[in-house]
């Protein structure tokens, strides 16, 4: 099992650094492990009906061309997101007999499939015709099993993994109470990520404490209407930064005191795992995959959509010594489970089983 076709509707470029970076990281990990990986990916995040039609048409044709070109040598297609990527994998299977596995990341199951009965039906068909379904978190796996009638034995819970050679701790500087305490958020600046509650909670923390605090938000601000809603809560202690290259994100994680991810829903929460790998404590919402990732002592969970509860936990982090707030033993267990190298080994087993069971059916 050495050649696979990866299809993804999200993939980063130099101009769009965070757009599906987790897919690219996994592709590079597979190549590092000796796989030959052919890609058919959409690297254009543009929105609007015309842009979406044009970019998806181009991407779809590219996927079909890759499927045809490599039809005799690719053993398995791996689609990231059930829809739309899984639809292309299904078409390629029907045209060229190449079996496929699909990774569900959360939004494809929790939001996209619920937009209409047609999309739900298509998602159901895509999952049913796959050789295997990968869910990035256990809650998502349960949804797939229950809502789409996928047999439990056909589903594996496998995160995208973290490269612990890239995301690693740096020596923490000795600080005094005169120096600012830094909170960090990395992700798209959208309502579903809980950014509004985060800024509100930060202001509550700021008004109650003696030590200066700072909040840095790194991510794309494509939803300008939502960003305008945030303006009343933004002051000189809240900084917005556009998406950064991964090495710079690692440095930000290493330098920050606490990482905060107050999402309303989250299939897994990979950036929280990356924060843990850099030695930075995590506060996150008690939703989706974050529950299993952080729920056994590796992090700190708060109710979603609750700025007051979030502020209380952020304040606690400010006053508790790092050694007491960061449970190193629990974190190491999590990092071992989700180490990128272990993920690749599990993927290889799934690819081999899919190729044996699905080729030219």
CATH topology of the largest domain: Rossmann fold
Number of domains: 2
What fraction of the residues are assigned to beta strands by DSSP?
A: 15-25%
CATH architecture of the largest domain: 3-Layer(aba) Sandwich
Q: CATH homologous superfamily of the largest domain - what is it?
A: Glycogen Phosphorylase B
Discrete helix count? 15
How confident overall, as mean pLDDT? 94
Widest sheet: strand order?
Answer: 2-1-3-4-5-6
Features:
12 strands, single chain, six-stranded parallel beta sheet, alpha/beta, 15 helices, Rossmann fold
Description:
- It is a single chain.
- The protein is α/β, with parallel strands linked by helices and 361 residues long.
- It has 2 domains: 3-161 and 339-358, Glycogen Phosphorylase B (Rossmann fold), CATH 3.40.50; 181-337, Glycogen Phosphorylase B (Rossmann fold), CATH 3.40.50.2000.
- The protein is 46% helix and 16% strand.
- The chain contains 15 helices and 12 strands.
- It has helices spanning 21-32, 49-69, 85-96, 107-110, 117-129, 138-148, 195-208, 224-230, 246-255, 270-277, 288-294, 307-319, 322-325, 328-337, 340-358, and strands spanning 3-8, 36-41, 76-80, 100-104, 132-135, 155-157, 181-186, 213-218, 238-241, 258-261, 282-285, 300-302.
- The strands form 2 sheets. The chain has a 6-stranded parallel sheet with strand order 2-1-3-4-5-6, sandwiched between helices. It has a 6-stranded parallel sheet with strand order 9-8-7-10-11-12, sandwiched between helices.
- Strand 1, helix 1 and strand 2 form a beta-alpha-beta unit.
- Helix 2 packs parallel to helix 3 (85-96), helix 3 (85-96) packs across helix 5 and helix 7 crosses helix 12.
- It is globular, with a radius of gyration of 21 Å.
- The two termini are 18 Å apart.
- Residues 22-165 form the Glycosyltransferase subfamily 4-like N-terminal domain.
- It holds the Pfam family Glyco_transf_4.
- GO terms for molecular function: glycosyltransferase activity.
- Residues 173-321 form the Glycosyl transferase family domain.
- This is Putative teichuronic acid biosynthesis glycosyltransferase TuaC.
């Amino acid at each position: 099992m050495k050649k696979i076709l990866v299809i993804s509707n999200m993939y980063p470029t130099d101009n769009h650094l965070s757009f599906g970076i987790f897919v690219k990281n996994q592709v590079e990990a597979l190549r590092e492990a000796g796989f030959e990986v052919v890609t058919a990916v959409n690297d254009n995040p543009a929105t609007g009906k015309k842009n979406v039609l044009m970019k998806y048409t181009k991407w779809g044709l590219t996927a079909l061309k890759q499927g045809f070109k490599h039809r005799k040598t690719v053993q398995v297609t791996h689609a990231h997101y059930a829809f739309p990527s899984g639809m292309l994998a299904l078409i390629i299977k029907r045209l060229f007999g190449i079996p496929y596995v699909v990774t569900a990341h959360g939004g494809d199951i929790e939001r996209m499939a619920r937009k209409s009965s047609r999309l739900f039906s298509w998602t159901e068909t895509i999952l049913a015709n796959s050789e295997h379904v990968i869910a990035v978190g256990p809650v998502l796996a349960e949804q797939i099993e229950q809502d789409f009638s996928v047999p439990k034995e056909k589903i594996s819970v496998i995160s995208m993994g973290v490269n612990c050679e890239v995301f690693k701790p740096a020596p923490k500087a000795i600080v005094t109470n005169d120096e600012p305490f830094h909170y960090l958020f990395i992700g798209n600046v959208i309502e579903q990520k809980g950014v509004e509650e985060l800024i509100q909670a930060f202001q509550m923390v700021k008004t109650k404490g003696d030590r200066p605090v700072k909040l840095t938000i790194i991510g794309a601000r494509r939803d300008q209407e939502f960003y305008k809603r945030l303006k009343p809560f933004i002051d000189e202690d809240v900084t917005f930064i556009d998406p950064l290259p991964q090495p710079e994100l690692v440095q930000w994680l290493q330098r920050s005191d606490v990482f905060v991810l107050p999402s309303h829903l989250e299939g897994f929460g990979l950036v929280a795992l990356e924060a843990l790998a850099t030695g930075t404590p995590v506060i996150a919402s008690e939703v989706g995959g974050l529950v299993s990732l952080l729920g056994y002592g590796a992090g700190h969970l708060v109710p979603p959509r609750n700025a007051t509860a979030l502020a209380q936990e952020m304040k606690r982090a400010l006053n508790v010594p790092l050694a007491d707030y960061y449970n190193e033993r629990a974190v190491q267990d999590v990092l071992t489970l989700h180490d990128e190298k272990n993920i690749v080994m599990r993927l290889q087993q799934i690819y081999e089983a899919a190729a044996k069971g699905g080729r030219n059916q």
